[in-house]
Amino acid sequence: MRILIAAAGSRGDIAPYTGLGAELRRAGYDVALATTEAFAPLVRDAGLEFRRLPGDTRAHGGVTGRRDLMRAAAAFITELGQGFADAMAGGTDMLLLSTTTAPLGWHLAEATGTPSLGVYLQPAAPTGDFPPVVTGSRSLGRPANRMAGRFALRMADRVHEQAVAQLRHRLQLRPASPSQMRRRQERVNWPILHGFSTALVPRPSDWRTGLDVVGNWWPHHDPSERLPADLEDFLCAGPRPVLIGFGSMAAGDGDRLSELAVRALRRAGLRGILQAGSAGLAADGDDILTIGDVPHALLFPRLAAVVHHAGAGTSAAALRAGVPAVAVPVTADQAFWAARLAALGAATDPIPFRSLTAERLADALDQVVKQQRYTRAAARAAQQMVTEDGAGLALKAIQQLANA
Question: What is the DSSP letter of 174?
């Protein structure tokens, strides 16, 4: 069976599917991952077939305002939709669709009769348990949370309107709006697996049938891979350091953030590792090392704490390692994950990116490193995550769908 996983966004939106795809390939499936060109090496390194989707989120990397973010998302989705059908040309027997690609993939599934399954990295369905993840706001109470969740879906439908209209025209399907298609999927209880841990987000009790939380899909990395020699030497040369990195966020802010990070580390009396990322963090010194991309699974267990942008993948990786965090959310769903970490007790209160100063970061680091309650909370979450088998449950759901 040929399985096509379709995903789009930043690196954190793609990397988990390399691990899921590799697990499915080991189970005997032919697996392709359709995403944008920037992530072709990531896909191929996992032993998966790469299929190209148009568009590049990096073109909108500096956008943070909500209105500008909506405009940028609509432009990206419209570009994505223009080439989405081509990704199935190599042959597809089953579609696995991410939060971003599902509102496009539903139409391809309809046109071709291909069975499909949602594989989401964020909770998107309305619930009374919490407000929609894109708002990052505090709970409004159960009725208002559900209302806000429905409103967020309507906003997502607006983002997809033009792309869906063009795609249905190309597929020679009768017109149907994104909201009509979404309601149709909800009526038939279209199955969605959520690839995050119940340690962070337990399954809401008011979700419909077919929505399940299965545990994380961890990014693929070669089991023989080791940390670079200079990083290994640095880790062994003194007390556990703190990692500071913002992943795909904060492009153009590298100089300011690097200076701020160094001042915070020195003020807190801690050794530090700066992960360059899209911001281009960099600093030199006996107590500071700059690195590029390395697998979280290898590095994080060796750290005292992680300062990060609270992307879903990085948040989960720190918890999996039993390491406390200081979350500095920048945009989108990051404030949601930052709040979940803090609620668990595995992170300090979030520091919004625009409010970040060396003094605030130093105080948070002093707190999270010296007060063991943060480490204990992260360790408890890690113990729960060990019991979850996200890839195994996804494999079981795929087998059931294939036999239906």
Answer: P
